[in-house]
């Protein structure tokens, strides 16, 4: 039997509340998916003092992350959080697009608000919407777009690489799929009231 929605959210909240953000990658694109720029931020992290999940650290090390350098030269978390909060507050017209990005969004929410995740699963999507505005998870939205299921999403995702190129490729893939989704939604005449307020199911 799978975990209940409440249990899954409790696990998410426990992990995000207790772990530090190590890397933050973002790609900026227009509504057609044309890439404007890609950035990767590597934050200060000390394996001797900060909590971590061994598998995640191993994955990052295998991908070329130098934790000795992060400890010495990584961006101070509080400085990064302050700058990201300013960007979010200033640009309220952005649409945040992710692919199966529950943990990405949760860490970003915690960074921007400087608070633990909301106490309940019911409050989580509401707070997410208040802070970020439009949030789209293209994997979730694909279920409403019959031409964008299964292999078509996986092909785009499988091309991703770690580091700056990986972020750029992920962003380009998300932009392309998002553009296709917009076309599919228009063809199926899905209105903002019927679907746009349900673009992300935080536990699916």
Automatic annotation (TrEMBL):
It catalyses: Exonucleolytic cleavage of poly(A) to 5'-AMP. Gene3D superfamilies: Ribonuclease H-like superfamily/Ribonuclease H. It is found in: Cytoplasm; Nucleus. Keywords: Cytoplasm, Exonuclease, Hydrolase, Metal-binding, Nuclease, Nucleus, RNA-binding, Transcription, Transcription regulation. It holds the Pfam family CAF1. Its cofactor is a divalent metal cation. It comes from the Eukaryota. Ubiquitous transcription factor required for a diverse set of processes. It is a component of the CCR4 complex involved in the control of gene expression. Component of the CCR4-NOT complex, at least composed of CRR4 and CAF1 proteins. This is poly(A)-specific ribonuclease.
